[in-house]
Amino acid sequence: MAQCVGCGEKFSILPSFLPREKHFCMDIIGEIVRSACLFGNTVRGLFEITGICGRKLKSIRTVMNRIKRMGFNHPAEILTRAGVKVSGYFQEDEGFEKEPDLRTYSVVMADSENMSVWHMDYVDHVDEETLCESFEKFVEKIAFTVIGVTKDKWRPSTKALKSVFHRIWIGFCHRHFLKKLWCALSDWRKDTGCDHKEVKSA
């Protein structure tokens, strides 16, 4: 361990990519991160969860360090070091983050074969210029070629992908179309009064 004389932060020197607090098993560390990122639990809630797992943490600071540590490395760096194989085909999407008084978005690229997230970014806008910058960050972290991407029909992201990844194959996901179709059929069923079997046959 070393301590920065400027900010006072302590960090591991060798190897730098290993998690701190290694006396906690990966199941406990994984449960903390999963609960925070997937279910949006509070820090106090995460602290209590570790007690349920069988090994309660001594300090909430440990939870904060674990969450903070996850943001140090790009997902592509972590997966490359872990030896995860990539297919070259990705699912790309931008998601609106529901935060009070903020309009922000998450940009994600996941491997279509094993659903591992290779790129995740947090942006203020989803215009072409911002998405180009986000995808360029991804390119800097990888040593393989992105062959193809499946996405929705958001034009700025399509243009950004074509600008950053040369000769890329782009496929449009039909999930959004199916969702709109089922909504339209549901409205039609209400208007006409027909049953579910007739809607399905339509």
Folded structure, characterized:
The protein has 202 residues and is α/β, with parallel strands linked by helices. The protein folds into 2 domains: 2-72; 79-176, Nucleotidyltransferase, domain 5, CATH 3.30.420.10. 44% of the residues lie in helices and 20% in strands. The protein has helices at residues 26-37, 43-53, 60-70, 75-81, 128-141, 155-164, 175-192, 196-201, and strands spanning 2-3, 10-11, 89-99, 102-111, 117-123, 148-151, 169-172. The strands form 2 sheets. It has a 5-stranded mixed sheet. It has a two-stranded antiparallel sheet with strand order 1-2. α1 packs antiparallel against α2 (43-53) and α1 crosses α3 (60-70). The model has no long low-confidence stretch (mean pLDDT 79).
Give me some keywords for this one.
alpha/beta; two-stranded antiparallel sheet; five-stranded mixed beta sheet; Nucleotidyltransferase, domain 5
Q: Give the neighbour order of strands across the main sheet.
A: 5-4-3-6-7
- Principal-axis shape equals globular
Question: What number is the mean pLDDT?
Answer: 79
Q: Figure out the total of helices.
A: 8
As for the number of domains, it is 2
By CATH, the architecture of the largest domain is named 2-Layer Sandwich
Sequence stretches where pLDDT stays below 50 over 5 or more residues: none
CATH class of the largest domain: Alpha Beta
N-to-C order of helices and strands: EEHHHHEEEHEHEHH
Q: Measured on Cα atoms, how large is the radius of gyration?
A: 22 Å
CATH superfamily of the largest domain: Ribonuclease H-like superfamily/Ribonuclease H
Measured between the Cα atoms of the first and last residue, the distance is: 66 Å
| CATH fold-level topology of the largest domain | Nucleotidyltransferase, domain 5
| Sheet having the most strands | 5 strands, mixed
- Tell me the strand percentage band: 15-25%
Residues in helix, %:
40-55%
